Amino acid sequence: xxxxxxxxxxxxxxxxxxxxxxxxxxxxxxxxxxxxxxxxxxxxxxxxxxxxxxxxxxxxxxxxxxxxxxxxxxxxxxxxxxxxxxxxxxxxxxxxxxxxxxxxxxxxxxxxxxxxxxxxxxxxxxxxxxxxxxxxxxxxxxxxxxxxxxxxxxxxxxxxxxxxxxxxxxxxxxxxxxxxxxxxxxxxxxxxxxxxxxxxxxxxxxxxxxxxxxxxxxxxxxxxxxxxxxxxxxxxxxxxxxxxxxxxxxxxxxxxxxxxxxxxxxxxxxxxxxxxxxxxxxxxxxxxxxxxxxxxxxxxxxxxxxxxxxxxxxxxxxxxxxxxxxxxxxxxxxxxxxxxxxxxxxxxxxxxxxxxxxxxxxxxxxxxxxxxxxxxxxxxxxxxxxxxxxxxxxxxxxxxxxxxxxxxxxxxxxxxxxxxxxxxxxxxxxxxxxxxxxxxxxxxxxxxxxxxxxx
Length: 455
Ligand SMILES: C[S@@+](CC[C@H](N)C(=O)[O-])C[C@H]1O[C@@H](n2cnc3c(N)ncnc32)[C@H](O)[C@@H]1O
Ligand code: SF4
Description:
With 455 residues, this protein is α/β, with parallel strands linked by helices. It has helices spanning 15-21, 43-56, 89-106, 128-141, 161-170, 184-190, 196-208, 227-240, 271-287, 304-310, 351-355, 373-388, 396-399, 404-412, 433-439, and strands at residues 2-6, 9-13, 60-66, 68-69, 81-82, 112-120, 143-154, 174-180, 213-220, 244-249, 290-293, 297-300, 315-317, 320-322, 328-332, 337-339, 343-347, 365-370, 390-392, 416-419, 422-425. Iron/sulfur cluster binds next to loops.
């Protein structure tokens, strides 16, 4: 039995419950999930969506994918090109600059960027000159809202003080640092050696330069991780005093990322041990003054994300939880995903295919989906559950008649409370949020094995 206090309420998780709900399932950074998008959705479809979105004139969220890393961490499931030949960045930046011009030509210049993110891979793979060059190409085509969130993912092992200074000088105001775990054994098995000292140096560097917010990424469920070893990592993380923490469930998907085969399944903690570590972390972070946000995030009491969760204005997109609800998201770079006016679009997944796109004439869209009315309804329900742990909707049970037996099972297991016009996730149910979302997923087939495990 695992015991924890979540949202001020004592919860107990039995091994039977874990056994029942530990199965493959999506993380719902999008609904419908990417495997259900169509290859027939191409550049013209995405361009039409962009043009259409100008009527509403929503603010923009821009995402730039920098896929490069010096080496591949064994545990990683991100879209990465691993090479120490840094010259690969030049042709990539040329293509990216073409895509920026093309996308900007389709969007009204009066629309302001209120959220902006460089992710990867490792964006600080780029030299200071390359960072400035990319920023220059973006700033020539887009204008920013005064209080825009401008963030970047930083790998503390490769990010120099000079790069941080350059980024801050350009206007970046948020950083997110990859840590995962500080235990040397776990680091060895995860293929990522990173000392506490080099991490602290990066955090201190961000503080000195007055970045408004510093996030730390952690992962639970890594090989050789134990509740005891992880507790020590949590202590060290608190010592770094981040504003936000993302605590991801390890996605072990060797059928999608062959390099993960280096990890032996024998070394992976069981579902029960994983949940014990997750519950332990929730308690440690809550005791340290953090609020448990949605599925897997934590934010300090005064943080905007905490306020947005409380005021029910929080939103979830491909980058995780955000306070910027009403943006159209344009993703640029290889594999990047956009979400514009009720549609998803994904760029070419192969670097060569992306770089060979003639951005003078077209975009690099290779898949996507225009959401149907039913998709939009289910998307809203899943988003409400993942952001606010409740959904209220007139005629809810008439709309979801088919789902009712599954919802009743969740209620019997104590994961949700059914209400007249919707449902509320219990503190226990927060540990099984992905399973609750799966009930509303019209595309999910029984026994579907392509996703990572929910517990
Ligand atoms: C693009 S990386 C962060 C930036 C930089 N490359 C670094 O590693 O410091 C994004 C984050 O995704 C998370 N991540 C990567 N692979 C994962 C996996 N297999 N399961 C869960 N989270 C994962 C890690 O927490 C990682 O920090
Ligand atoms: S975790 Fe970060 S540094 Fe490691 S391979 Fe993934 S993207 Fe690259």
